[in-house]
Amino acid sequence: INVDNDGNAACQAEVKFGKLQNVQDGLFITIGKGVGGAIIINNKIVHGYHNRGGRFGHTVIHTNGRKCNCGRHGCFETYASVAGLIQTVKEFNLKYKDEYPMVEEEKLSGYQIVKLYKEFNPIIKEAIKKWNKDIAEGLLDLCHIFDPSIIVIAGGITESGLLNLNFIKSFLYKHSYGDCEVALAKFKGKTGLVGASALIDD
Predict the structure, then answer these.
(1) How far apart are CA 135 and CA 149, in angstroms?
(2) Predicted model pTM
(3) What is the pLDDT of residue 78?
(4) How far is CA 70 from CA 51, 66, 78, 81, in A?
(5) Could you give the 3-state DSSP secondary structure of residue 106?
(6) Which residues of the chain have pLDDT under 50?
(7) Among 57, 134, 148, 173, which is most buried by a count of CB atoms within 10 Å?
(8) Distance between CA 163 and CA 52 in Å, rounded?
(9) DSSP reduced 3-state for 68
(10) What whole-number distance in Å separates Cα of residue 46 and Cα of residue 159?
(11) Which residues contact 98 (CB under 8 A, 6 or more apart)?
């Protein structure tokens, strides 16, 4: 039996079979209930001294921002995760309450947001723009630290059509990282399953 952090395990799928094959310096990001991932250096996943490498969700992108479960404020995952997106929708409900009909907040989920987005709901549209901007901000911070050649993004939300890769790439380009490729994971929401099964080969 081999055991690993879920982000590192998911990354194995892309390193062995997907977009991170033969990559020397790259990052793997998972977006779901939180934000996690893994660091690839010399085509190997870096676990860190305490086996905590890749906890990207707890880098801060908004000082004095939303309270995070870790105890800090403004963490990347409080904005970029699915839960963060839901919170952004709620905030935009108040921001645009005098301009547009409010989105029903009871039992609001990622699935409902996707549905409303496809129906061109104006509040959802603005919230998605902000969500993509927050993701881009977090990825830029990681670029400054790791200078990756590629960032691969995974998670069920990547199958929704909500992620604006062109915007994210343009944002990185404006901040001198235009040669950093940004791509969706080959296995999208199933990277964890494929990666965990790949651990047995190690």
Answers:
(1) 18
(2) 0.91
(3) 97
(4) 17, 11, 10, 15
(5) coil
(6) none
(7) 57
(8) 27
(9) coil
(10) 27
(11) none
